[in-house]
Each structure stands twice: as structure tokens, then as C-alpha cells.
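[job 0412] stage=complex_fold ligand=EPZ status=START
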Amino acid sequence: MEVPNLEKFVIRGGVPLNGSIHIGGAKNAAVAILPAVLLADGPCIIDNLPEISDVTAILKVMHSLGAQVKMINRTSVEIDPSTVRSFVVSKDMAKGMRASSYFLGALLGRFYRARVAPPGGCDFGIRPIDQHIKGFESLGADVSIENGMVDLRAQRLSGCSIYLDMVSVGATINIMLAAVRANGLTVIENAAREPHIVDLANFLNSMGANIMGAGTGVIKIRGVGRLHGVEYSIIPDQIEAGTYMVAAAATGGNVRIENVTPKHLESIIAKLEEVGATVKIFDDAVQVIMNDRPKHCNVKTLPHPGFPTDMQPQFATLLAIAEGTSIVKEGVWDNRFRYVDQLTLMGAKIHVDGKVAVISGVEKLNPAPVRAVDLRAGAAVVIAGLMANGVTEIEEIGHIDRGYECLVEKLRGVGADIQRVSEETQQEVLKQA
Ligand code: EPZ
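[job 0412] stage=complex_fold status=DONE, emitting C-alpha cells
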């Protein structure tokens, strides 16, 4: 998927956010559940889909494989995978999106054959797929790289025991996708425990799979002969919710975040409370209230239930205006501090050494022209723009569109002054000036 560069966000910051925001379906669950539909022998309806470009890209791949894809409304889609004949996902289709790798597991489970270009996605340093490949090989597939494509072939898939060398969301998902159609029992040890892993397991089980232990470090999958079509609703997006919670705190606001699963937000709530926010918890909502300048705190990102790496840039942005010095350690990715240069342009004082950032809190951030260098880095500079008094312009917002639905509308709904400006509008403004 190409990330379009022609639009930008213009934010007039310094306004505390106030009101309520409705959270959409989880991106990282949707991008796994949609490829999983390929395993069904009849149509599936998927509800609570987020309206983001990564979902559009996955649906395009499904269509290119031969699935019949029909949007029922903005957040529900009906997909009939019974017409799929192809097992090839080309480079053009796979680039720009990490989740394209899930077609490897889903197509292997469906056809015992898959040929998929290596995945793209955010640039956090090297993003290997060796654990995915180890899983496919253990299940009985021959794996080769031919003409830049990952090629999987199996006569049959057989249940096995796989120990992941590191906790990997993607490898856990890919192995589950193939193992549901293997003969016998597959055990994944050191499995990822993220909410989207559990959501995928619930989806597959509702189709007739037999998966136990999702949400723990050991997942057991007993293969089944067929999976049937179902209607399924995706869980709320933990990271979208967390992003708006941090935005509320960073602007000294009072925002109720609705349609969330508070259990999924525990680590984020704990850290917000540590910096001085009040967080009220309801059945399916949380409310974040911040009256004072945030206090400093230390954060280390870890696989779930640790503090999510996908919230690290946003939280570091909040800490940029905290009283005192905070230390942020990135425990998942080698290089997830590329956004720091952008925050520095806005007056933040952050020193990065490898996987550690030392943040000396400043009283305020200043507006500046900045870039969204990747998806969550983009969310971070949006929060920074909302905090800074004056006009911040953010370029390369295609990255943000990959994972945040209706961001402008949602933020305007809580009082933010933010616009999406197209190149044409910019030309118009220049002409009139
Ligand atoms: C998923 O990426 C998410 N993407 C990421 O969210 C998220 O940051 C990440 O999990 C960690 O939570 C999707 O769900 C589409 P991993 P994934 O495999 O699956 C190493 C966002 O912002 N590793 O859990 O690619 C890897 O290098 C995105 O929404 C191997 O060494 O992540 C990393 O250090 C960005 N070999 C660590 O494990 C492998 O075979 C965790 O990666 C696989 C991973």
C-alpha cells in the first residue's frame, strides 16, 4: 500500500480536550481476522471493522485472491472466500503493511500452499519473520524464498510443538492460522498474549476451530477438518483508546473514551495515574481527567500485559512536558525512537541511547512543521501539536490513516482545532494570499 504524502494535518493547539470519543474496532485484530476468513467454507460477516487504510488494503488483497467482498455499511463487511482460487499475494499488494504476512498462515491453512511477498510496515529496524517460518516448517511446510517471494508448500500439515524464541504477535497469529487445519494437536509455547490474539482465537473458535489457552503463554490448537462462515464483531482498539487517553492528559483535558474494554487498558491507566491523571473506569468506558502538569515517570515497554510498545511514542510525548526526568525503555523493537527528532523540533529535550530515551521535561512544546515518520510516531506528533500553543503542521499523514479512523472528526468532537488540508486546498490558500 502506498502512503500518500499529499495531505497534512494543521493543528492549532493549546486547547484542553473535553467531551467524549467513541473508539472503533481494533486494527491489529482486524488485520488478522480478515485473512482468517479465507479458512471458512462459506461467507463471513465481520462487524466493528475500523475505517482505516490498512483494512482497505487487506480487503483489496482478499478481492485480488478471488474472494467476494461486499461492504454492508462503513464498519461491516461480508466476505465469501469460497471463490478464492489464488494463493499468491504480490509485492504491490504486500508492501507497506506488516499484516500481509498473515496471508502466509491463512493460505497455507486453506490450500497447503502460499506465495506471499515479504511484508512491509512501520520501520523499527530489522523486522524478521524467522519465528513464523520456524512455525510453518514445524507444521510440515517446505519454505523457500523464490524471486523475492516467500513460498510455502505442504503435502499435509501435522500438529507439533513450537517454542517461540521471543514473544511474537505475528508468529503466534500465523501459526494459529495454519494449525487450525493441521492434523492433531499443535502447542505454541511462549505465545503472545495480546487482546488481538484472544480475539482471533475467539473468531476461529466461533468458526468451529478448537483453540485453548489464547491469552496465556501456551496456546493449544487441535486441528479440524472444516471451518464454517460466521458473523463476528471485532474488539475495541486498545491503542486508539490509549492514544486519546494520553491526548486528554497531555492537553490537561477531561475526556470520556467510550466503547473500550477497560481490562485491556490496565497498564496505560496505571501509568496515567502515576503521572497524576485521574482515571475513572466504567463497564465499557474510561474517563481521563488531568488538572496539573504531569509528573515524571519511567516506562518500559513489554509484550502484553506489559505497557504496549504501540503506546510508547504517545506516552513519551506526554512525558516531554512532565516535571522532572523520565526514562523510557523500549523492550520490543530495536529502533522505535525515530519520532524523537520531530519532538525535538518542537522543543522537547530527549536523549536517545539505543533502546533508552531520557526525557527532561520542558514546560511546554512549541509548534513546528513536523512529519509522521510512522503510524504511532504520527499519533505522537498529533498529541504534541494539540499540546503546543500555535499552529503545527504535520506531513506524511498517510501513516496515521493506516491506523486511526476519523481522527480529525473524533478530535474536533472534543474541541480540538485540527484540519486535514489537501494539496488543492493549500494551493487555493496560497492563491488567495
Ligand atoms: C505486531 O507486530 C503489531 N502489528 C505491532 O503494531 C506491534 O508493535 C507488535 O506486534 C508488538 O506488539 C500488527 O499486529 C499488525 P512481533 P509484529 O512479531 O507481529 C521480533 C502498530 O503500531 N521478531 O510481536 O510484527 C521483532 O523483531 C504496529 O500497530 C523476531 O525476531 O511484532 C520484535 O523485536 C506496529 N522474529 C519482536 O520480535 C520473528 O519472526 C516482536 O515482534 C518475529 C518477531
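The CA atoms of residues 167 and 192 lie 5 Å apart.
[job 0412] exit 0
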